[in-house]
Amino acid sequence: MAARLTILLLLGLWLDPGMEAEAGLVVDTTPRLWIESESPSSPWANVTLQCLATNTLAMKFQLLKDGKIFSSLSALETYARFPLGPVTADNKGIYRCRIQQAENHWGLISAPVEVTGAEPLPAPSLQAEPGPWILHGLQTELHCQGRLLGMTFDLYQEGEQGPVDSSHTPKPETTFIIKSPGNYTCQYRPPTTASRVRSAPSETVHVVIPDSLPKPSLESWVNLVIRPGGSVTFRCRTRFSGLEFKLLKDGEEVFVPMMSSTDPQLIDFHLKDLEPGAGGRYSCRYRFREGPLIWSEDSESLELVLTTGTLDKPSLSVQPQDAVISRGTNVTLQCLGARPNVRFALLKKGSRQPVQVLSPAGSRADFVLSDAMAYDSGNYSCIYFETVAPFAGSPASEDVEVQVDGLFPKPTLHPLSPVVTPGKDAALRCSGRVPNSNFQLFRDGESTELEVTHQRVSEYTVDFLLRNAKPQDGGRYRCRYLTWTKPILTSEISDPAEISVTGKIL
Protein backbone atom coordinates (compact mmCIF):
# COMPACT_ATOMS: atom_id res chain seq x y z
CA MET A 1 0.00 0.00 0.00
CA ALA A 2 1.27 3.46 -0.83
CA ALA A 3 3.12 5.27 1.91
CA ARG A 4 1.33 8.54 2.38
CA LEU A 5 1.59 11.61 4.52
CA THR A 6 -1.50 13.74 4.99
CA ILE A 7 -0.90 17.48 5.20
CA LEU A 8 -3.87 19.65 6.06
CA LEU A 9 -3.54 22.15 3.25
CA LEU A 10 -6.02 23.42 0.71
CA LEU A 11 -4.15 22.80 -2.52
CA GLY A 12 -5.64 21.81 -5.86
CA LEU A 13 -9.14 22.48 -4.51
CA TRP A 14 -11.60 25.24 -5.28
CA LEU A 15 -14.15 26.12 -2.64
CA ASP A 16 -16.72 28.90 -2.45
CA PRO A 17 -15.89 31.68 0.01
CA GLY A 18 -17.45 30.98 3.37
CA MET A 19 -17.73 27.29 2.60
CA GLU A 20 -16.78 24.95 5.39
CA ALA A 21 -14.06 22.55 4.25
CA GLU A 22 -11.76 19.84 5.38
CA ALA A 23 -8.91 19.10 3.01
CA GLY A 24 -5.77 17.01 2.97
CA LEU A 25 -3.10 16.73 0.33
CA VAL A 26 -1.69 13.28 -0.22
CA VAL A 27 2.08 13.58 -0.53
CA ASP A 28 3.78 10.73 -2.34
CA THR A 29 6.97 9.49 -0.67
CA THR A 30 8.00 7.11 -3.46
CA PRO A 31 11.77 7.55 -3.93
CA ARG A 32 13.24 8.51 -7.30
CA LEU A 33 16.33 6.99 -8.88
CA TRP A 34 18.55 8.72 -11.46
CA ILE A 35 21.78 8.08 -13.30
CA GLU A 36 24.58 10.58 -12.71
CA SER A 37 27.42 10.47 -15.24
CA GLU A 38 30.85 12.02 -14.76
CA SER A 39 30.95 12.87 -18.47
CA PRO A 40 27.59 13.37 -20.24
CA SER A 41 29.28 12.91 -23.62
CA SER A 42 30.48 9.45 -22.46
CA PRO A 43 27.57 8.62 -20.17
CA TRP A 44 28.59 5.06 -19.29
CA ALA A 45 32.27 5.78 -18.55
CA ASN A 46 31.78 6.53 -14.85
CA VAL A 47 28.29 6.15 -13.40
CA THR A 48 26.74 6.94 -10.02
CA LEU A 49 23.14 6.17 -9.11
CA GLN A 50 21.38 8.83 -7.06
CA CYS A 51 18.36 7.89 -4.91
CA LEU A 52 16.18 10.79 -3.76
CA ALA A 53 13.85 10.43 -0.77
CA THR A 54 10.86 12.41 -2.03
CA ASN A 55 9.11 14.69 0.50
CA THR A 56 10.64 12.90 3.46
CA LEU A 57 13.85 12.11 5.35
CA ALA A 58 15.37 8.62 5.19
CA MET A 59 17.22 6.67 7.87
CA LYS A 60 18.62 4.18 5.38
CA PHE A 61 18.84 3.76 1.60
CA GLN A 62 18.93 0.47 -0.25
CA LEU A 63 19.83 -0.12 -3.90
CA LEU A 64 18.47 -3.22 -5.63
CA LYS A 65 19.81 -4.75 -8.83
CA ASP A 66 17.63 -7.17 -10.80
CA GLY A 67 15.40 -7.56 -7.73
CA LYS A 68 18.20 -8.34 -5.25
CA ILE A 69 19.88 -6.10 -2.66
CA PHE A 70 22.99 -4.59 -4.24
CA SER A 71 24.08 -1.96 -1.70
CA SER A 72 22.89 -0.19 1.46
CA LEU A 73 23.73 3.16 3.03
CA SER A 74 22.79 4.43 6.50
CA ALA A 75 22.38 8.20 6.57
CA LEU A 76 19.76 10.61 7.85
CA GLU A 77 19.51 12.38 4.51
CA THR A 78 17.14 13.20 1.68
CA TYR A 79 19.31 11.46 -0.94
CA ALA A 80 22.10 8.90 -1.31
CA ARG A 81 24.69 8.28 -4.03
CA PHE A 82 25.76 4.77 -5.07
CA PRO A 83 28.94 4.82 -7.25
CA LEU A 84 29.05 2.08 -9.90
CA GLY A 85 32.11 3.24 -11.84
CA PRO A 86 32.51 2.21 -15.49
CA VAL A 87 29.61 0.13 -16.76
CA THR A 88 30.70 -3.47 -17.26
CA ALA A 89 29.01 -6.83 -17.65
CA ASP A 90 29.05 -7.13 -13.84
CA ASN A 91 27.06 -3.98 -13.06
CA LYS A 92 24.67 -3.80 -16.02
CA GLY A 93 21.10 -4.39 -14.94
CA ILE A 94 17.76 -3.03 -13.77
CA TYR A 95 18.12 -0.92 -10.63
CA ARG A 96 15.62 0.36 -8.09
CA CYS A 97 15.97 1.96 -4.69
CA ARG A 98 13.94 2.14 -1.52
CA ILE A 99 14.19 4.01 1.77
CA GLN A 100 13.71 3.20 5.43
CA GLN A 101 11.79 5.86 7.35
CA ALA A 102 11.39 3.92 10.59
CA GLU A 103 13.06 0.95 12.22
CA ASN A 104 12.22 -2.29 10.38
CA HIS A 105 9.95 -0.49 7.94
CA TRP A 106 10.89 -0.12 4.29
CA GLY A 107 8.80 2.21 2.18
CA LEU A 108 7.84 2.17 -1.48
CA ILE A 109 10.25 1.13 -4.19
CA SER A 110 11.33 3.49 -6.98
CA ALA A 111 10.59 3.08 -10.66
CA PRO A 112 13.22 0.96 -12.44
CA VAL A 113 16.30 2.49 -14.06
CA GLU A 114 18.17 0.45 -16.64
CA VAL A 115 21.97 0.65 -16.80
CA THR A 116 22.86 -0.77 -20.21
CA GLY A 117 26.29 0.61 -21.10
CA ALA A 118 24.97 0.84 -24.66
CA GLU A 119 23.32 3.21 -27.07
CA PRO A 120 20.71 4.42 -27.56
CA LEU A 121 20.25 5.56 -23.96
CA PRO A 122 17.07 4.39 -22.16
CA ALA A 123 13.94 6.07 -23.51
CA PRO A 124 12.32 8.88 -21.49
CA SER A 125 8.64 9.07 -20.61
CA LEU A 126 6.38 11.84 -21.93
CA GLN A 127 3.20 12.99 -20.21
CA ALA A 128 0.75 15.82 -20.93
CA GLU A 129 -0.40 18.07 -18.09
CA PRO A 130 -3.16 18.74 -17.23
CA GLY A 131 -4.19 16.61 -20.22
CA PRO A 132 -3.46 16.04 -23.92
CA TRP A 133 -5.56 18.98 -25.13
CA ILE A 134 -5.21 22.43 -26.62
CA LEU A 135 -7.83 24.73 -25.09
CA HIS A 136 -8.01 28.52 -25.14
CA GLY A 137 -6.82 29.89 -21.80
CA LEU A 138 -5.32 26.60 -20.61
CA GLN A 139 -1.56 26.07 -20.62
CA THR A 140 -0.70 22.62 -21.92
CA GLU A 141 2.64 21.18 -20.82
CA LEU A 142 4.54 18.09 -21.95
CA HIS A 143 6.65 16.66 -19.15
CA CYS A 144 9.65 14.68 -20.43
CA GLN A 145 11.22 12.45 -17.75
CA GLY A 146 14.67 11.09 -18.57
CA ARG A 147 17.04 8.76 -16.77
CA LEU A 148 20.33 10.70 -16.71
CA LEU A 149 21.20 14.01 -15.04
CA GLY A 150 22.60 16.99 -16.94
CA MET A 151 21.15 16.22 -20.35
CA THR A 152 19.58 18.30 -23.13
CA PHE A 153 15.98 17.41 -24.00
CA ASP A 154 14.51 17.71 -27.50
CA LEU A 155 10.79 17.79 -28.30
CA TYR A 156 9.63 16.51 -31.69
CA GLN A 157 6.31 17.00 -33.46
CA GLU A 158 5.23 14.67 -36.24
CA GLY A 159 5.58 16.38 -39.62
CA GLU A 160 8.25 18.85 -38.48
CA GLN A 161 11.92 18.69 -39.46
CA GLY A 162 14.09 18.54 -36.36
CA PRO A 163 13.07 19.38 -32.79
CA VAL A 164 10.38 22.01 -32.20
CA ASP A 165 11.86 22.85 -28.79
CA SER A 166 14.97 22.04 -26.73
CA SER A 167 15.89 22.47 -23.09
CA HIS A 168 19.10 21.90 -21.14
CA THR A 169 18.71 21.22 -17.43
CA PRO A 170 20.79 19.72 -14.60
CA LYS A 171 17.70 17.71 -13.64
CA PRO A 172 16.64 14.43 -15.27
CA GLU A 173 13.44 16.01 -16.56
CA THR A 174 12.05 19.09 -18.24
CA THR A 175 8.75 20.65 -19.24
CA PHE A 176 7.77 21.97 -22.67
CA ILE A 177 4.83 24.32 -23.23
CA ILE A 178 2.94 23.58 -26.45
CA LYS A 179 0.26 25.54 -28.30
CA SER A 180 -0.74 23.33 -31.22
CA PRO A 181 -2.26 19.85 -31.51
CA GLY A 182 -0.21 17.00 -32.93
CA ASN A 183 1.76 13.86 -32.16
CA TYR A 184 4.73 14.52 -29.90
CA THR A 185 7.79 12.57 -28.72
CA CYS A 186 10.89 13.56 -26.78
CA GLN A 187 14.50 12.42 -26.50
CA TYR A 188 17.52 13.45 -24.45
CA ARG A 189 21.21 13.73 -25.33
CA PRO A 190 24.49 15.12 -23.97
CA PRO A 191 24.62 18.94 -24.18
CA THR A 192 27.66 18.97 -26.47
CA THR A 193 26.65 19.26 -30.12
CA ALA A 194 29.60 17.10 -31.17
CA SER A 195 28.22 14.04 -29.36
CA ARG A 196 26.08 11.61 -31.34
CA VAL A 197 24.87 9.83 -28.22
CA ARG A 198 21.14 10.13 -27.64
CA SER A 199 18.25 8.26 -26.07
CA ALA A 200 15.60 6.18 -27.71
CA PRO A 201 12.43 8.23 -28.34
CA SER A 202 9.61 8.32 -25.82
CA GLU A 203 6.21 6.91 -26.59
CA THR A 204 4.02 9.26 -28.64
CA VAL A 205 1.57 11.62 -26.93
CA HIS A 206 -1.42 12.61 -29.08
CA VAL A 207 -2.53 16.19 -28.33
CA VAL A 208 -5.95 17.22 -29.66
CA ILE A 209 -8.49 20.06 -29.54
CA PRO A 210 -11.39 18.44 -27.62
CA ASP A 211 -15.07 19.26 -27.82
CA SER A 212 -15.41 18.74 -24.06
CA LEU A 213 -13.46 17.47 -21.09
CA PRO A 214 -13.74 13.76 -20.24
CA LYS A 215 -16.41 12.86 -17.71
CA PRO A 216 -15.41 12.22 -14.07
CA SER A 217 -16.61 9.26 -12.03
CA LEU A 218 -19.01 9.50 -9.08
CA GLU A 219 -18.79 7.00 -6.24
CA SER A 220 -20.31 6.38 -2.83
CA TRP A 221 -19.33 3.90 -0.13
CA VAL A 222 -22.56 4.08 1.88
CA ASN A 223 -26.03 2.70 1.29
CA LEU A 224 -27.95 5.06 -0.98
CA VAL A 225 -31.33 4.02 0.43
CA ILE A 226 -31.61 5.87 3.73
CA ARG A 227 -34.04 7.56 6.12
CA PRO A 228 -34.48 11.36 6.22
CA GLY A 229 -31.97 12.92 8.60
CA GLY A 230 -29.24 10.55 7.43
CA SER A 231 -25.96 11.39 5.71
CA VAL A 232 -24.22 10.37 2.52
CA THR A 233 -20.89 11.17 0.87
CA PHE A 234 -20.38 11.35 -2.89
CA ARG A 235 -16.83 11.25 -4.28
CA CYS A 236 -16.15 12.90 -7.64
CA ARG A 237 -12.89 11.62 -9.16
CA THR A 238 -10.86 12.77 -12.18
CA ARG A 239 -7.34 12.33 -13.59
CA PHE A 240 -6.44 16.02 -13.23
CA SER A 241 -5.59 18.68 -10.63
CA GLY A 242 -6.40 22.34 -10.07
CA LEU A 243 -10.13 21.90 -10.54
CA GLU A 244 -13.47 23.39 -9.61
CA PHE A 245 -16.11 20.74 -8.91
CA LYS A 246 -19.90 20.80 -8.90
CA LEU A 247 -22.46 18.33 -7.59
CA LEU A 248 -25.78 18.14 -9.41
CA LYS A 249 -29.15 16.64 -8.48
CA ASP A 250 -31.47 15.87 -11.37
CA GLY A 251 -29.31 18.16 -13.52
CA GLU A 252 -29.40 21.16 -11.15
CA GLU A 253 -26.42 22.37 -9.10
CA VAL A 254 -26.50 21.49 -5.40
CA PHE A 255 -24.94 23.79 -2.81
CA VAL A 256 -22.79 21.63 -0.54
CA PRO A 257 -21.51 23.40 2.61
CA MET A 258 -19.09 20.61 3.53
CA MET A 259 -16.47 19.24 1.14
CA SER A 260 -13.15 17.53 1.76
CA SER A 261 -10.31 15.96 -0.17
CA THR A 262 -7.20 13.86 0.32
CA ASP A 263 -6.08 14.21 -3.29
CA PRO A 264 -6.23 17.18 -5.71
CA GLN A 265 -7.76 14.90 -8.34
CA LEU A 266 -10.94 14.26 -6.36
CA ILE A 267 -13.40 15.79 -3.93
CA ASP A 268 -15.85 14.38 -1.40
CA PHE A 269 -19.27 16.02 -1.11
CA HIS A 270 -20.70 15.44 2.38
CA LEU A 271 -24.49 15.67 2.52
CA LYS A 272 -25.71 15.67 6.12
CA ASP A 273 -29.10 15.82 7.88
CA LEU A 274 -30.86 15.10 4.61
CA GLU A 275 -34.42 16.29 4.23
CA PRO A 276 -37.06 13.99 2.70
CA GLY A 277 -36.91 15.82 -0.64
CA ALA A 278 -33.16 15.28 -1.08
CA GLY A 279 -33.65 12.08 -3.05
CA GLY A 280 -32.87 12.04 -6.76
CA ARG A 281 -30.20 11.31 -9.36
CA TYR A 282 -26.82 12.84 -8.46
CA SER A 283 -23.92 13.50 -10.82
CA CYS A 284 -20.84 15.71 -10.84
CA ARG A 285 -18.73 17.75 -13.25
CA TYR A 286 -15.50 19.75 -13.16
CA ARG A 287 -13.57 22.47 -14.93
CA PHE A 288 -10.11 23.96 -14.55
CA ARG A 289 -9.79 26.91 -12.19
CA GLU A 290 -7.31 28.56 -14.54
CA GLY A 291 -8.26 28.05 -18.14
CA PRO A 292 -11.28 27.83 -20.41
CA LEU A 293 -14.68 28.19 -18.81
CA ILE A 294 -15.96 24.91 -20.20
CA TRP A 295 -17.28 22.15 -18.00
CA SER A 296 -16.64 18.46 -18.38
CA GLU A 297 -19.29 16.00 -19.38
CA ASP A 298 -21.41 14.98 -16.39
CA SER A 299 -20.48 11.78 -14.61
CA GLU A 300 -22.73 8.75 -14.66
CA SER A 301 -25.46 9.36 -12.09
CA LEU A 302 -26.19 7.64 -8.79
CA GLU A 303 -29.73 7.55 -7.37
CA LEU A 304 -30.23 8.52 -3.74
CA VAL A 305 -33.50 7.23 -2.25
CA LEU A 306 -34.97 8.58 0.98
CA THR A 307 -37.87 6.75 2.56
CA THR A 308 -39.68 7.52 5.80
CA GLY A 309 -40.89 3.94 6.19
CA THR A 310 -44.36 5.24 7.10
CA LEU A 311 -46.34 4.00 4.09
CA ASP A 312 -47.67 0.45 3.86
CA LYS A 313 -45.11 -2.23 3.07
CA PRO A 314 -45.19 -3.39 -0.57
CA SER A 315 -45.15 -7.01 -1.74
CA LEU A 316 -42.63 -8.48 -4.18
CA SER A 317 -43.03 -11.54 -6.38
CA VAL A 318 -40.85 -13.13 -9.05
CA GLN A 319 -41.57 -14.78 -12.41
CA PRO A 320 -40.64 -17.47 -13.26
CA GLN A 321 -40.92 -19.07 -9.83
CA ASP A 322 -38.36 -21.82 -10.51
CA ALA A 323 -36.00 -22.64 -7.65
CA VAL A 324 -33.11 -22.26 -10.09
CA ILE A 325 -33.67 -20.10 -13.16
CA SER A 326 -31.92 -20.94 -16.40
CA ARG A 327 -29.25 -18.56 -17.57
CA GLY A 328 -30.49 -16.14 -20.27
CA THR A 329 -34.09 -16.06 -18.99
CA ASN A 330 -35.92 -12.74 -18.60
CA VAL A 331 -36.78 -12.50 -14.89
CA THR A 332 -39.59 -10.15 -13.78
CA LEU A 333 -39.75 -8.87 -10.20
CA GLN A 334 -43.19 -7.35 -9.57
CA CYS A 335 -43.50 -4.81 -6.77
CA LEU A 336 -47.05 -3.99 -5.64
CA GLY A 337 -47.52 -0.81 -3.62
CA ALA A 338 -50.50 0.74 -1.84
CA ARG A 339 -50.92 3.86 -3.99
CA PRO A 340 -50.37 5.08 -7.56
CA ASN A 341 -48.11 7.81 -8.92
CA VAL A 342 -45.12 6.97 -6.76
CA ARG A 343 -41.56 5.93 -7.54
CA PHE A 344 -40.43 2.33 -7.02
CA ALA A 345 -36.91 1.09 -6.30
CA LEU A 346 -35.64 -2.49 -6.59
CA LEU A 347 -33.01 -3.32 -3.98
CA LYS A 348 -30.52 -6.17 -3.85
CA LYS A 349 -28.90 -7.34 -0.63
CA GLY A 350 -25.22 -6.37 -0.61
CA SER A 351 -25.65 -3.58 -3.17
CA ARG A 352 -25.27 -0.01 -1.94
CA GLN A 353 -27.55 1.52 -4.55
CA PRO A 354 -30.88 0.55 -6.11
CA VAL A 355 -30.70 -1.98 -8.92
CA GLN A 356 -33.47 -0.21 -10.84
CA VAL A 357 -35.83 2.72 -10.21
CA LEU A 358 -39.18 3.08 -12.05
CA SER A 359 -42.04 5.60 -12.09
CA PRO A 360 -45.10 3.70 -13.36
CA ALA A 361 -48.51 5.34 -13.65
CA GLY A 362 -50.20 2.79 -11.40
CA SER A 363 -49.39 1.18 -8.08
CA ARG A 364 -47.29 -1.63 -9.56
CA ALA A 365 -43.77 -1.72 -10.97
CA ASP A 366 -42.38 -4.55 -13.09
CA PHE A 367 -38.60 -4.78 -12.84
CA VAL A 368 -37.08 -6.93 -15.58
CA LEU A 369 -33.68 -8.61 -15.35
CA SER A 370 -33.03 -9.20 -19.04
CA ASP A 371 -31.00 -12.26 -20.06
CA ALA A 372 -30.35 -13.07 -16.40
CA MET A 373 -26.90 -14.35 -15.55
CA ALA A 374 -25.34 -15.79 -12.40
CA TYR A 375 -24.39 -12.31 -11.15
CA ASP A 376 -28.13 -11.51 -10.97
CA SER A 377 -28.51 -14.14 -8.23
CA GLY A 378 -29.33 -12.74 -4.79
CA ASN A 379 -32.01 -11.57 -2.38
CA TYR A 380 -34.20 -8.74 -3.67
CA SER A 381 -36.69 -6.39 -2.03
CA CYS A 382 -38.50 -3.24 -3.12
CA ILE A 383 -39.78 0.05 -1.74
CA TYR A 384 -41.91 2.89 -3.06
CA PHE A 385 -41.80 6.59 -2.18
CA GLU A 386 -43.37 9.93 -3.03
CA THR A 387 -41.47 12.45 -5.16
CA VAL A 388 -43.46 15.46 -3.89
CA ALA A 389 -44.13 16.72 -0.37
CA PRO A 390 -44.44 15.22 2.16
CA PHE A 391 -42.03 12.71 0.46
CA ALA A 392 -43.28 9.74 2.47
CA GLY A 393 -41.93 6.28 1.71
CA SER A 394 -42.50 2.64 2.55
CA PRO A 395 -40.35 0.12 4.38
CA ALA A 396 -38.77 -2.61 2.27
CA SER A 397 -40.83 -5.59 1.19
CA GLU A 398 -40.01 -9.10 2.29
CA ASP A 399 -37.01 -10.55 0.47
CA VAL A 400 -37.41 -12.69 -2.63
CA GLU A 401 -34.53 -14.96 -3.64
CA VAL A 402 -33.44 -15.24 -7.26
CA GLN A 403 -31.05 -18.05 -8.15
CA VAL A 404 -29.68 -18.19 -11.70
CA ASP A 405 -27.58 -21.19 -12.69
CA GLY A 406 -24.09 -21.04 -14.16
CA LEU A 407 -21.03 -18.92 -13.55
CA PHE A 408 -20.46 -15.18 -13.87
CA PRO A 409 -19.47 -14.13 -17.41
CA LYS A 410 -15.78 -14.56 -18.14
CA PRO A 411 -13.53 -11.54 -17.55
CA THR A 412 -11.15 -10.10 -20.12
CA LEU A 413 -7.39 -10.35 -19.64
CA HIS A 414 -4.67 -8.58 -21.60
CA PRO A 415 -1.05 -7.56 -20.99
CA LEU A 416 -0.33 -3.83 -20.74
CA SER A 417 2.84 -4.64 -22.68
CA PRO A 418 3.08 -8.04 -24.38
CA VAL A 419 6.91 -8.00 -24.47
CA VAL A 420 8.87 -7.08 -21.34
CA THR A 421 12.62 -6.81 -20.77
CA PRO A 422 13.94 -9.01 -17.92
CA GLY A 423 14.05 -7.06 -14.66
CA LYS A 424 11.16 -4.77 -15.54
CA ASP A 425 7.59 -5.13 -14.31
CA ALA A 426 5.04 -7.04 -16.37
CA ALA A 427 1.38 -6.14 -15.93
CA LEU A 428 -1.79 -8.06 -16.83
CA ARG A 429 -5.15 -6.25 -16.67
CA CYS A 430 -8.22 -8.29 -15.68
CA SER A 431 -11.71 -6.75 -16.05
CA GLY A 432 -14.87 -8.41 -14.73
CA ARG A 433 -18.61 -7.74 -14.77
CA VAL A 434 -19.36 -7.52 -11.03
CA PRO A 435 -18.20 -4.47 -9.05
CA ASN A 436 -15.69 -4.77 -6.20
CA SER A 437 -14.99 -8.45 -6.81
CA ASN A 438 -12.04 -10.53 -5.67
CA PHE A 439 -9.69 -11.28 -8.59
CA GLN A 440 -7.38 -14.27 -9.09
CA LEU A 441 -4.58 -14.94 -11.58
CA PHE A 442 -3.50 -18.38 -12.81
CA ARG A 443 -0.95 -19.88 -15.13
CA ASP A 444 -2.75 -21.34 -18.13
CA GLY A 445 -3.52 -24.98 -17.40
CA GLU A 446 -2.86 -24.69 -13.64
CA SER A 447 -5.41 -24.47 -10.82
CA THR A 448 -3.24 -22.87 -8.13
CA GLU A 449 -3.78 -19.13 -7.69
CA LEU A 450 -0.61 -17.06 -8.17
CA GLU A 451 0.44 -14.85 -5.27
CA VAL A 452 1.27 -11.62 -7.09
CA THR A 453 0.81 -7.94 -6.33
CA HIS A 454 -2.30 -6.37 -7.77
CA GLN A 455 -3.54 -2.80 -8.04
CA ARG A 456 -7.22 -1.91 -8.34
CA VAL A 457 -7.83 0.25 -11.41
CA SER A 458 -11.60 0.58 -10.94
CA GLU A 459 -14.41 -1.28 -9.21
CA TYR A 460 -14.42 -3.72 -12.15
CA THR A 461 -10.69 -3.96 -13.00
CA VAL A 462 -7.33 -4.84 -11.44
CA ASP A 463 -3.76 -4.93 -12.73
CA PHE A 464 -1.68 -7.96 -11.74
CA LEU A 465 2.01 -6.99 -11.45
CA LEU A 466 4.88 -9.41 -11.97
CA ARG A 467 7.72 -7.52 -10.30
CA ASN A 468 11.25 -7.78 -11.73
CA ALA A 469 10.01 -10.16 -14.41
CA LYS A 470 12.26 -13.09 -15.33
CA PRO A 471 12.26 -15.11 -18.57
CA GLN A 472 10.44 -17.93 -16.78
CA ASP A 473 7.58 -15.50 -16.02
CA GLY A 474 6.75 -15.44 -19.71
CA GLY A 475 3.85 -17.54 -20.90
CA ARG A 476 0.07 -17.72 -20.94
CA TYR A 477 -2.12 -16.56 -18.05
CA ARG A 478 -5.83 -16.58 -17.20
CA CYS A 479 -7.87 -14.78 -14.54
CA ARG A 480 -11.28 -14.96 -12.89
CA TYR A 481 -13.29 -12.98 -10.35
CA LEU A 482 -15.50 -14.03 -7.46
CA THR A 483 -17.64 -12.57 -4.70
CA TRP A 484 -16.14 -11.80 -1.28
CA THR A 485 -19.14 -12.96 0.76
CA LYS A 486 -20.92 -16.29 1.04
CA PRO A 487 -22.22 -17.94 -0.98
CA ILE A 488 -19.04 -17.53 -3.03
CA LEU A 489 -19.97 -17.14 -6.69
CA THR A 490 -17.24 -17.31 -9.33
CA SER A 491 -16.84 -16.35 -12.95
CA GLU A 492 -15.81 -18.43 -15.88
CA ILE A 493 -12.06 -18.40 -16.48
CA SER A 494 -10.84 -15.79 -18.95
CA ASP A 495 -9.37 -16.51 -22.33
CA PRO A 496 -5.57 -16.79 -22.12
CA ALA A 497 -3.29 -13.76 -22.43
CA GLU A 498 0.40 -14.14 -23.20
CA ILE A 499 3.43 -12.13 -22.16
CA SER A 500 7.00 -12.59 -23.29
CA VAL A 501 9.95 -11.74 -21.04
CA THR A 502 12.83 -11.63 -23.43
CA GLY A 503 15.96 -9.77 -24.38
CA LYS A 504 19.03 -8.99 -22.37
CA ILE A 505 20.76 -6.00 -20.92
CA LEU A 506 23.34 -5.13 -23.54
TrEMBL record:
Lineage: superkingdom: Eukaryota
Disulfide bonds listed in the record: C51-C97, C144-C186
GO function term, MF aspect, one: peptidase inhibitor activity
Pfam families for this protein: Ig_2, Ig_3
GO biological process: immune response-regulating signaling pathway
One GO cellular component term noted in the UniProt record for this chain: plasma membrane
InterPro entries the UniProt entry points to: A1B_glyco/leuk_Ig-like_rcpt, Ig-like_dom, Ig-like_dom_sf, Ig-like_fold, Ig-like_Receptors_ImmuneReg, Ig_sub, Ig_sub2
Classification via SMART domains: IG, IGc2
Annotated Ig-like domain residues: 314-382, 409-500
PROSITE patterns linked to this entry: IG_LIKE (PS50835)
Signal peptide: 1-21
Keywords annotated in UniProt: Disulfide bond, Glycoprotein, Immunoglobulin domain, Metalloenzyme inhibitor, Metalloprotease inhibitor, Protease inhibitor, Repeat, Signal
Record-given protein name: Venom metalloproteinase inhibitor DM43-like isoform X1
Organism ancestry: Eukaryota, Metazoa, Chordata, Craniata, Vertebrata
